[in-house]
Amino acid sequence: MQSNRIPKTLARELERHAHEIEEHWMEEDCFEPEAGNWSIWIYLTPEFENGYDPGLGIIHEATARDAIDALRHVQPTTRPRD
Q1: Which of 2, 3, 10, 21: disulfide with 36, CB 3.0–4.6 Å?
Q2: How many CA atoms within 13 Å lie on the side-chain side of 15?
Q3: What is the average per-residue pLDDT within 11-30?
Q4: Which residue has the higher pLDDT, 32 or 69?
Q5: Calculated CA dihedral for residues 6, 12, 14, 19, nearest 10 degrees
Q6: Local structure of 3: helix, strand or coil
Q7: Which band of pLDDT confidence, cut at 50, 70 and 90, is reported for residue 1?
Q8: Mean pLDDT of 1-6
């Protein structure tokens, strides 16, 4: 991402998933430099996990599109977190 402002599309999705999210922020960390200097961190509540990496309660993505996709795959926790 090129800016530290949360895009409106992502803000709407964060609002829809508010009951699954503990906290979220953007950070200048060059996580994927080709996508920009900013990345998105989303910490899920203990009842939910990252559907792409079961057992993990964090989403860390370089683009709003990827963060939205990951949020749409959040699932209830199936095992203790790593």
Answers
A1: 2
A2: 7
A3: 93
A4: 69
A5: 150
A6: coil
A7: very low
A8: 64
CB 34 within 8 A of CB 65: no
Q: Write down the H helix ranges in 5-63.
A: 8-16
Nearest alpha carbon to residue 74 among 57, 61, 60, 66: 57
Q: What are phi and psi of 44, to 5 degrees?
A: -90, 155
Q: Please say whether the beta carbons of 49 and 32 come within 8 A.
A: no
The answer to whether the CB of 24 falls within 8 A of the CB of 38 is: no
- Residue 59 pLDDT grade (very low, low, confident, very high; cuts 50, 70, 90): very high
Alpha-carbon gap, residue 46 to 59, rounded angstroms = 13
DSSP state of 6: P
Q: What is the pTM of this model?
A: 0.85
Q: Are 75 and 48 in contact (CB under 8 A)?
A: yes
